[in-house]
Amino acid sequence: MANSCMNNWTGFVVAFCFFLFGGINVAHADLFLMKNGDRIRGKLVKAEKGQMTVSTAYSGELKLAMSEVAKILTRKPVVVKLSGGRMAKGALHSQKDGRLALRLVKKSRRAYLNWEDIEAINPPPRTWDGDMSFGGSTQTGNTDRSSLSIGGDWKRRIGKLDRTSISFLFNFSKEDEETTAQNTFGSLKYDHFYNKKIYAYLSTTFLNDKFKDLNLRTVVGPGLGYLVWNDENGKTLDLEAGISYFSEDLIDDEDQKWATGRLAADLAFKVFKIFRFRNKLEVFPNLIEFGRYTSRNVASLTTALGNGWSFKLSNIWQYDSDPPDDVENSDVTTIYAIQYSF
């Protein structure tokens, strides 16, 4: 009799605990309201490439199309990868206007997003973030013309203190069997952060352009940077200043070397929620000959096409206040390209 009572009591306790903790798990599960009216409770595992993975207690892992999710509520913070490769952490909650509120973990405020702002949720750790762009054109008939452009930007953030950036761009064009443009640009920069805003950098840039009489232009030097903006809505601004060694290996004219300063600004923000604008300016004032300088400004506008692809329009303006003989001061290049971000 005692054993029977004990067994019944034990069974009651087990059942009560199962009910209690099972109820807590359900109450604290993420909620997904689908456009067809279905309600799904579970844990958001990840989301990428238009597909969301949800772990449930009753059906294992479910694959949901992100385009079919009407509303979402995550009980615990998730890691969100935003357009441009930036990361943010917080709980997601759909708003009445269709936007998503991201309740940030490290800040007592919310950021408001659209689904198209999100590239991935709880993405696997990646060593590099960046993009590749490909552009070109051909024309035949009265004029035989062809052009090719290949570019890339990559960034690697190691912890909170170190950041590496690599960029390159190759342009080539030919008209009636004659080469009309051929140049290659590359840059490598390392940043070390002392706090969230201030960092030291070492920057190197290279340029080859036979139409500028350049076998190779090399600029290398250190400096300091200040991160003015870096918010969850895509607005970023870096300001930098330093000194550099400037060298030009010229094809026809005499080679030149001098000390130069470096002033730079890198600005990015969203325009009308569907475009991303970026402008990167570098100015190198000659420290030996006052008034002499070179500059390079790259302005670009991208619009997402889906699954990491976007259309990109770039305008590159390069200026040299004292170019070699028979070389123009200013060069302007416009590039239409397809870009893939990862």
In terms of topology, how is this protein built?
Elements: H1 2-27, E1 30-34, E2 39-48, E3 51-56, E4 60-65, E5 69-73, E6 78-82, E7 87-94, E8 100-104, E9 110-113, E10 118-121, E11 129-139, E12 145-158, E13 162-175, E14 178-193, E15 198-209, E16 214-230, E17 236-250, E18 256-271, E19 275-285, E20 293-306, E21 309-320, E22 330-341
Antiparallel strand pairs: 1-2, 1-5, 2-3, 2-10, 3-4, 6-7, 6-10, 7-8, 8-9, 11-12, 11-22, 12-13, 13-14, 14-15, 15-16, 16-17, 17-18, 18-19, 19-20, 20-21, 21-22
What does the model show?
By secondary structure, this protein is mainly beta. The protein has two domains: 2-121, no CATH class; 129-341, Porin, CATH 2.40.160.40. Helices cover 8% and strands 65% of the residues. It has one helix and 22 strands. The protein has one helix spanning 2-27, and strands at residues 30-34, 39-48, 51-56, 60-65, 69-73, 78-82, 87-94, 100-104, 110-113, 118-121, 129-139, 145-158, 162-175, 178-193, 198-209, 214-230, 236-250, 256-271, 275-285, 293-306, 309-320, 330-341. The strands form two sheets. Strands 11-12-13-14-15-16-17-18-19-20-21-22 form a twelve-stranded antiparallel barrel. Strands 1, 2, 3, 4, 5, 6, 7, 8, 9 and 10 form a ten-stranded antiparallel beta sheet that branches. The radius of gyration is 27 Å and the shape is elongated.
